[in-house]
Amino acid sequence: MAQLAMMILLALFVVSTQVMAVTSGGSDVADVKPEWTAEGKKQAAHLATLSAKDEMVLIPAGPFLMGSNRLVDRNTYPAELPQRTVHLDAYEIDKYEVTAVQYLRYVLAKGLEPLVDWKWGGVFQETMAYHPVMHVSWYDADSYCKWAGKRLPTEAEWEKAARGEDGRIYPWGNQMAGLSRANFGRTGLSGPVRDRPERLLLYPPIISVDKYDNAVSPYGVFNLAGNVAEWVADWYDPTYFKQAPDRNPKGPDHGTSKGFRGGGWVDSTPSVRAAQRNGTEPHSKMNWLGFRCARDPIGERGQPAKAAPASAPAP
Hints:
Elements lengths: L1 H18 L18 H10 L8 E4 L2 E5 L17 E5 L2 E4 L5 H11 L27 H10 L7 H9 L65 E7 L22 E4 L15 E4 L8 E2 L3 E2 L20
Parallel strand pairs: 5-8
Antiparallel strand pairs: 1-4, 2-3, 4-9, 5-6, 6-7
């Protein structure tokens, strides 16, 4: 038994040294090229008919506090400074992270190959249908949003949706993050991978996108802390806030890394704060990184959409 455990750990080490990225940990499988099996594609076509969690929430036009204040948040990183008031036009954002079944519809419609984590057992499994999609590059996320008639949110749009107008540290307020509110700080050796630890390289302990209704943002948006981090539209520059405009900022004109927000299942408490910023190479495909989409508001029959009220100020 001990010899078998040692062999598994050795295999994990060999594989992980080939695929681990130099960001928050987790596997980068950008070079892995999975293919559909006949059984897998048949099952996928059936599961693509499952209902989609594609509701959107209107975020009203107006100002909000963007970035961090060290006097309020001791975990502030330099890239979050200075805190300032930013004005945004109204927009809509997905209430939930884009799910695997939503992305499956896109893959089948475009005739694409399956994602690498869909291959356990050779089929797309129903148990993952409402988990957030992962192992998608920034380009994949951007393409999906355009196909769906949407776009990736800007950093500013993502942050306002996550924390409202009052500069709160987390979507639910200023209380410390805990496992009753967010899926973070996990080793991965639990849930769907506890009996097969080698699977952690592909399928980590993520949860359905509609969990933690006690931890939604002031606008009712789910899982903006933990589960999977989320791509945003902007090029990432850690010094951008020093010269960013205070109205509808869209990030630098160019760069080498794309931004992501929210932290993932593997991250620590400081990384799941609403203001925390980071970036990585846009071709990266990680098992802790997904996305959600945004769009300009359209409402019903072309009329302005009705905004969800923000909650009471954070304690």
